Amino acid sequence: MIKVKHLSKKFDDYQALDDISLNIQKGSIYGLVGPNGAGKTTLIKHMTGVYIQDEGRVVINGSNVYENNGVKELIAYVPDDLYFFPQYTTKKMAELYKRIFKTWNQDRYEKLKEVFKIDENKKINKLSKGMKKQVAFWLSISYMPQVMILDEPVDGIDPVMRKKVWNLLVQDVAERKMTVLVSSHNLRELEDVCDTVGIMHEGKLLIEKEIDDLKSDVYKIQVAFKNGEISKDIFSDTKILHKENRGSIFLYILKGNRKETIDKIEKKGPAILDVLPLTLEEIFIYEMEGVGYEIKNIIL
Ligand SMILES: Nc1ncnc2c1ncn2[C@@H]1O[C@H](COP(=O)(O)OP(=O)(O)OP(=O)(O)O)[C@@H](O)[C@H]1O
Fold first, then answer.
1. Does the CB atom of residue 81 touch ligand 1 within 6 A?
2. Cα–Cα distance, 180 to 85 (Å, whole number)
3. Is 141 in contact with 112 (CB distance < 8 Å)?
4. Number of helices and strands (H, E) in the chain?
5. Side-chain-side CA neighbours of residue 211 (13 Å)
6. How far apart are CA 42 and CA 16, in angstroms?
7. How far is the C-alpha of 234 from the C-alpha of 256, rounded, in Å?
8. pTM of the predicted protein model
9. What keywords does the record list, in alphabetical order (predicted)?
């Protein structure tokens, strides 16, 4: 559905995107994560046809996006930095959308009044930051887009409304195979909704994986041996992302063949061996640590 092929972009001498390729399947939710300045918004602005790339292509439904109104009509884009016409109310925006988008669904817009509970006659610019985000999402999902591209969609929205926004998104993906790309720093919430996650760093895509694979690939173990030693050959086929010890108990974050490594440890007869699940947030932190983006222990 969405293909980004070898996309590169420089702002003057700064390489903001460096040979990015990614694939998003129809009817799936792709989570784009990365530290501040990684290039997420820049990538999104190429995917929505705002920026023109230096090299590469963005293809949606088989066609290039840039300067292609036919393709852009399929996409709803909720940017991080929202803009609304100064005098417009939500109702007036809905009337405008109705004229612009053939797929506008008035019935849905009306039904979602119950969900968003925002006065549609109030000027949008007079609403709070979180309410503006809600309005942007409400209007976008009411024209039944085939693709939704969302940059920090729940930033500033309260927890109850955030849950409702995610639920609406998941519902449209399940019911009408909408395709979603969402950038967020809220990894706990992304983890619940995404099928695939892409981790960006310094303009590059470090990792792109289905979330289930990502979680089975990176794992945490707690291990202890009676003699207190761990032979190095246990980890010969695996990458140690992180290691620490509390007394004789060692905690490892490992990446690689889980079964082989666990088998090797078990053969050595450990006193303790626990394999613990990792959250997406932990995976992100350890992967970033692996590329030198460390979380230093700061003592104040
Ligand atoms: N229009 C621009 N002109 C020059 N540099 C830019 C421009 N837009 C972005 N950049 C630079 O490109 C890099 C990537 O920025 P971008 O906004 O894409 O990051 P991001 O991953 O979305 O970050 P955040 O999580 O903070 O929103 C940054 O170093 C930024 O300063």
1. no
2. 26
3. yes
4. 11, 14
5. 23
6. 7
7. 12
8. 0.87
9. ATP-binding, Nucleotide-binding, Transport
**For the segment 86-122, what is each residue's pLDDT rounded down to a tens digit?**
899 999 999 999 999 999 999 999 999 999 999 999 9
With a 6 Å cutoff on the Cβ, whether 184 touches ligand 1 is: no
CB atoms inside a 10 Å sphere around CB 173: 19
Q: Do residues 21 and 187 lie in contact, with contact meaning Cβ atoms separated by under 8 Å? A: no
- Residue of higher predicted confidence among 288 and 262: 262
Q: Which amino acid is at 35?
A: P
For the record, the structure tokens of 119 come out as 């006065």
Whose structure tokens read 């887009």?
Answer: 145
What SS3 class is residue 197?
A: strand
Among all chains, which residue has been given the structure tokens 């784009």? 32
- Decide if the complex's ipTM is over 0.90: yes
Q: Is 42 in the pocket of ligand 1 (CB under 6 A)?
A: yes
Q: Where are the beta strands (DSSP E) in the chain?
A: 2-11, 14-24, 29-33, 55-60, 63-64, 75-78, 147-151, 179-183, 196-201, 204-210, 218-224, 238-246, 249-256, 272-276
Phi, psi angles (nearest 5°) of residue 120 = -75, -10
Compute, in angstroms, the gap from residue 151 CA to the centroid of ligand 1.
13
Which atom of ligand 1 is least distant from the CA of 38? 21
DSSP secondary structure letter of residue 256: E
